[in-house]
Design brief:
Elements: E1 4-5, H1 15-24, H2 43-60, E2 66-71, H3 74-86, E3 92-97, H4 100-116, E4 119-125, E5 154-157, E6 159-160, E7 165-166, E8 182-185, E9 202-206, E10 217-222, H5 223-228, H6 239-244, H7 254-269, H8 272-293, E11 311-314, H9 319-331, E12 334-335, E13 346-349, H10 356-373
Parallel strand pairs: 1-12, 3-4, 3-5, 5-8, 8-9
Antiparallel strand pairs: 2-10, 6-7, 9-10, 11-13
Helix pairs in contact: 1-7, 2-7, 3-4, 8-10, 9-10
The structure holds pyridoxal-5'-phosphate.
The site of pyridoxal-5'-phosphate has 12 residues, from helix 3.
């Protein structure tokens, strides 16, 4: 029995992508072995690798100006690899902080910049309160940043997975006052809607939120930006190495990339990003409407225009009720709704693999729970 899995990441994968992996596990494409037992240089694996890249290009409409790369080390390695590659001694980069992940990206940027002899600065920070109690409930507005005209790049996080804060309608050019190349962490914001990703200079996303299993990190980067990266780094840490070797410089995480291929093929089969976006917006509207109908019982801390379509964060009147709801959901076959340990409360993640009827089941449970305890 599979449960309704609202985990934030690693998260639910589309059932057809898993079933395909199951069916092909022992004998991939009539080769008598699993795809993970194939050489990464052989034609059987290469077909999967190439298909994954082409599907990504097709679904997002990635133009020739941009590379599609498979990397490792998660989004967390990108926190360091970006400043290591694109900050030269004496330079500075801008960071927009809107939650826990962008804060972490900034802190790792600080460490790396110190190592390089460069610096990073906070161009905007929407947090309120101090220390552990600091809370994030909204994205940064267009006029809100203090941009450094000479910044090597501007980094922001389009969806804050822990705080449930997402940049609204068009995240592409959110800060007109900055002319710097845009580097974005889209880990939990990836592949759920139509978006012109070529408006960014470098996009990175750990796969395990919406794209596949952990172990592979997707990077979409402009060729011109990649060419600007430092050339005196170890080869393995240069984006250009991945680009020139088609992400086959060393052994890539072949099985993870295979699963990404399955997920991308599934997205295409259900109608591509337009259809996926329509579904995701319907799911999120259903859940937020349910919460908004009982404001005395459910409290959504995030500003309406910054509410995440992927990670819905809310509170109940007491922590005891929150624990009670988590237990009730579990008894009904629904898991993963507990908030992140750093912020508490509840969080429901509605990635692509969550079907509408799973959200309907959760909403029915929430309504019954509010009626009983409200
Ligand atoms: C999950 C997540 C990360 C961390 O990803 P890892 O792959 O574990 O390094 C970074 N940023 C965001 C926005 C995330 O959701």
């Amino acid at each position: 029995m599979r449960v309704l899995n609202f985990n934030p990441g690693p998260a639910a994968l589309p059932l057809p992508a898993l079933e395909r992996a199951r069916d092909e596990l022992l004998d991939f494409a009539g080769t008598g072995m699993s795809v993970m037992e194939h050489s990464h240089r052989g034609k059987d694996y290469d077909a999967v690798h190439t298909e994954a890249i082409l599907l990504m290009r097709e679904l997002y409409g990635v133009p020739d100006s941009h590379e599609v790369l498979f990397m490792t080390g998660g989004a967390s390695q990108q926190f360091a690899q970006v400043p290591l590659s694109f900050l030269k001694p004496g330079e500075s980069a801008d960071y927009v902080v809107t939650g826990a992940w962008s804060q972490k990206a900034f802190q790792e940027g600080e460490r790396t910049a110190r190592f390089v002899g460069a610096s990073v600065r906070v161009a905007a920070d929407t947090g309120v309160g101090e220390g552990k109690a600091r809370s994030y409930t909204r994205a940064a507005g267009p006029g809100e940043i203090e941009a450094d005209p000479n910044a090597a790049y501007l980094h922001f996080t389009t969806n804050e997975t822990i705080h449930g804060v997402q940049f609204g309608i068009d995240p592409r050019r959110p800060f007109p006052s900055s002319k710097a190349p845009l580097v974005v962490d889209m880990s939990s914001d990836f592949l759920w809607r139509k978006l012109d990703v070529s408006a960014f200079d470098l996009v990175y996303a750990g796969a395990q939120k919406n794209l596949g299993p952990s172990g592979v990190t997707l990077v979409i980067a402009s060729k011109a930006f990649v060419a600007r990266g430092r050339e005196d780094l170890p080869k393995i840490l240069q984006y250009r190495t991945n680009a020139s070797e088609r992400s086959l410089y060393n052994t890539p995480p072949t099985f993870a990339i295979y699963l990404v291929r399955n997920v991308l093929a599934w997205v295409k089969s259900v109608g591509g990003l337009e259809e996926i976006e329509r579904l995701n917006r319907e799911k999120a509207a259903l859940l937020y409407d349910c919460l908004d109908r009982s404001p005395e019982f459910f409290r959504c801390p995030v500003a309406k225009d910054s509410r995440s379509v992927m990670n819905v964060v809310f509170r109940l009147p007491t922590e005891a009720l929150e624990a009670d709801l988590v237990a009730r959901a579990k008894a009904s076959g629904m898991v993963g709704i507990k908030g992140h340990r750093s912020v508490g409360g509840l969080r429901v993640s509605l990635y692509n693999a969550i079907p509408l009827d799973a959200v309907e089941a959760l909403v029915a449970l929430l309504q019954a729970f509010a009626k009983q305890h409200g």
